[in-house]
Amino acid sequence: MIVLLPPSETKRGGGDGPALALDSLSSPALGDVRAELVDELIALAADPAKSRAALGLSASQDSEIERNAALRSAPTMPAMHRYTGVLYDALDVTSLRGTAASRAAARLMVVSALFGVLRADDPIPAYRLSAGSKLPGRPTLASTWRPALEPVLAELASSDLIVDLRSGSYANLGKVSGAVTVDVIAEHEDGRRTVVSHFNKAHKGRLARALSTSRSDPADAAAVAGIARRAGMRVERRGDHLTIVVAA
């Protein structure tokens, strides 16, 4: 099983790994697109005004542009430690030890607007590029990534069950046929149900932790739902789609 995660806008700074080496990352078939985008972000960083427009930043966020300028020289750390925020707080990989940590490292992957798909231990620097960013002179990042990323994801899906926890914009970077998908719904006392927005990330983070550390290796959506239920989640299944139901 592979659990596909979205990245986070916020990223931990620093690191004690060597500078970015694109040829050391997993999924080497993505190397050409990775190199193009890294070089474009570095060049774009020389013009802060254009960078702000392309990346959706304000002047108070110019430190993000500085990160992009240093993409090839900044220290790295494993991808799963680089990303922060609500989902990654709930996942809390830094608390895992022993076999649980090894399982998580093997099962967790992140789909990034800059690097395509990353293994948990792929060493990357801090950067700023979201799936909705519009780089000058380039079509959408989805149209840039799909031709390269979808064959890689299809190859992964040919040997492993994919549980896709990505948000819509990151799912659009590369579709995965046959993946188990998940949403989160809040149920009110009167029975009404509403979509959970911000906190759906926390519930998906808890699910990712349960799946990535489970002793069992599920082969279908029903088995994924079983792991979630054993972790205390209320889950409904319709085919390959799971709904986590939480109290409003």
Explain the overall architecture.
- This protein is an alpha/beta fold and 248 residues long.
- It has one domain (2-247).
- The protein has ten helices and ten strands.
- Strands 1, 3, 4, 6, 7, 8, 9 and 10 form an eight-stranded mixed β-sheet that branches. A two-stranded antiparallel ribbon has the order 2-5.
- Helix 6 packs across helix 9 (200-213).
- The two termini are 31 Å apart.
- The model has no long low-confidence stretch (mean pLDDT 97).
Features:
39% helix; eight-stranded mixed sheet; alpha/beta
- Total separate domains: 1
State the end-to-end CA separation: 31 Å
Number of helices: 10
Structural class: alpha/beta
Residue fraction in strands: 15-25%
Mean pLDDT: 97
Largest sheet data: 8 strands, mixed
Number of strands: 10
What is the radius of gyration computed over CA atoms, rounded to a whole number of angstroms? Answer: 18 Å
Helix content: 25-40%
Instruction: Show unreliable segments.
Output: none
**Overall 3D geometry?**
globular
| H-E order | EHHHEHHHEEEHEHEEHHEE
* Oligomeric form: single chain
Please give the structural blueprint:
Layout: E1 2-5, H1 31-44, H2 48-55, H3 62-69, E2 77-78, H4 79-82, H5 86-91, H6 98-107, E3 108-112, E4 116-119, E5 123-124, H7 141-159, E6 162-164, H8 168-171, E7 180-187, E8 193-195, H9 200-213, H10 221-230, E9 235-238, E10 241-247
Parallel strand pairs: 1-3, 1-6, 6-7, 7-10
Antiparallel strand pairs: 2-5, 3-4, 7-8, 9-10
Helix pairs in contact: 6-9
